[in-house]
Every structure is written in C-alpha cells, then in structure tokens.
Amino acid sequence: GGSTIALIAALGTAVGLVAVVLIRRGWVSAGLYVLIGGFLAAFAAVPLVVKDARLSAVYCSIAVVIAGVTLRRSGVAVVTALALGIAVLGTWYYPPVDPPVGPREIITAAVILIVINLATALLGLWGQRQETRRADAAAQRSADLADRLQRSNAELEARVASRTDELQR
Which of 6, 60, 111, 158 lies in disulfide reach of 87, CB 3.0 to 4.6 Å? Predict the structure, then answer.
C-alpha cells in the first residue's frame, strides 16, 4: 500500500516537473494538459492499485479547477467529463472498504483540496496579471507608434504644402 502510493506520488511529481518545464519554455497548453492528465491518471491509478476509491472522487475536482482557470471551454469540458468518469467508475468499482472514511481522512482531503485549489487560483491570478502587464505595454507601444505616425503625417503634410506653395509661386 504505502510504497505503491509513494511511487504514484513520485510519478505525479515527475509529471508536474515536466509540465513546469514545458510551461517555462513557452508551451503553456502542452504543459497544462500534461499536468491535468497527470492528476487524472493518478486519481485513476490509486483505486486500481489499492482497490479502494476512498476519496478519489473528491480529488478529481482538482483537475476540473485547474482546467477551469487555465483552459478553453472545450478543454474544460473534456477534463470535466474525464474527471466525472474516473470519479464515478472508481467509486462504483472500488467502493471504500472497512474502515469507513473517517473524519481525519475527510479533513485531510479538504485541506489538500483547499491548498491545491488556492495555489491554482493564485497561479491563475499571477497569469492574469502577467497578461495584463503585457497588454498594457503593447497598448502603450501602440499609442506611441500612433503619436509618431501622426507627427510624421503632419510633417509630410507641411512639406507638401510648402512644396505646393513654392511650385505655385
């Protein structure tokens, strides 16, 4: 039990690191799909290995939250469908066995979910701030270019008017 779960956690960490590398290299969508796929694979693997879905259905919400903050609607729909499938099938085929889920397990699951969802929300906010800064910088560059273009047009119109005056004289 414990060593198998540790192996799944180590694989999950490796998948997370691969996702971070992809995202840092600019392949954001690929990194996000690897991260979310890793979460879903882990949530599907645990019940298969330990024959007890226990709280896997609850943990599937993590993938949906991450998708909701980061992916387009179609990606969110796919992730939600997969998470629901894993949650329902895992719990159906591997219902919790004795002892039943206790308060400590529920509290632990809640704390883990809250921390992961908070981290996801903070990363989403950070990403939004980054994009806002980029958009603001692009808007400023655009405004600067428009000003320069107006000045250039005014200079050209003045030259044309001057030349026209000279030719008319």
Answer: 60
